[in-house]
Amino acid sequence: MFNYDPKMRWPSAEDLPDSDDTPVDNELQDLIPSLLKAILALLWANRMDWFFGVDMGIYYNSQSPPIVPDGFLSLGVERFVDEEELRASYAIWEEKKTPIFALEVISGTYRGEFTTKKAKYAELGVLYYAVYNPRRRRKPPLEVYRLVDGAYEYLPENPVWMPEIGLGIGREEGTYQGIRRDWLYWYDEQGQRFLTPEELVREEREGRLQAERRAQMLAERLRSLGLDPDSLI
Predict the structure, then answer these.
(1) Of 72, 97, 31, nearest in space to 169 by CA
(2) Which of 59, 109, 115, 171 is the most interior residue, by most CB within 10 Å?
(3) Residue 8's pLDDT is what?
(4) Where in 86-141 does DSSP place strands (E)?
(5) How much is the pTM?
(6) Is it the case that residue 102 has pLDDT exceeding 80?
(7) Which three-class secondary structure state does DSSP give residue 206?
């Protein structure tokens, strides 16, 4: 667990690099956490006590390089610390909160997601840790773990409900940015998936079209009865 010593002179988040400058193996490492963040931005639009970082360095020691998950969620922190520049990085000693959830997406090279990174997240006290490997066939592509007594325990459900967050996470087939494949989504306690921004826009558009069709059918019906629909407005 991270211990903050206020007597030490720690650098601010703005003084630290925002990531480890390691290029992603595949677009999925950016698209999947970005989709989760976009859904949260709709779902928690009125909440200002959360932050979801994408490919951002988490600093736990000013003398050590950051650990950089593909995505992570913190609760009980300011959503925006600077509305112009936004966060440059995430320094635990400054935020006073360890992320509650971390996500790693494997799309090519293994980078310690099941070994060194997993151990570091446990050491920091990250409550939930998820690893998504879409190339897996014999094991579940998505593995979610919960920290229990300092070690991660695998949670086999899909989706996995995370009561401390008030959300579930899971995978299912869907379309995002025109790409049809398995994506990761947030779920409610009953296992119902929350819609993406694209899906909400499409739903609203379809609702408007249905309303227009109903209005047109009603107007045609009134005309067949010898009534002028415009005169009834």
Answers:
(1) 72
(2) 59
(3) 47
(4) 90-91, 101-105, 128-132
(5) 0.79
(6) yes
(7) helix
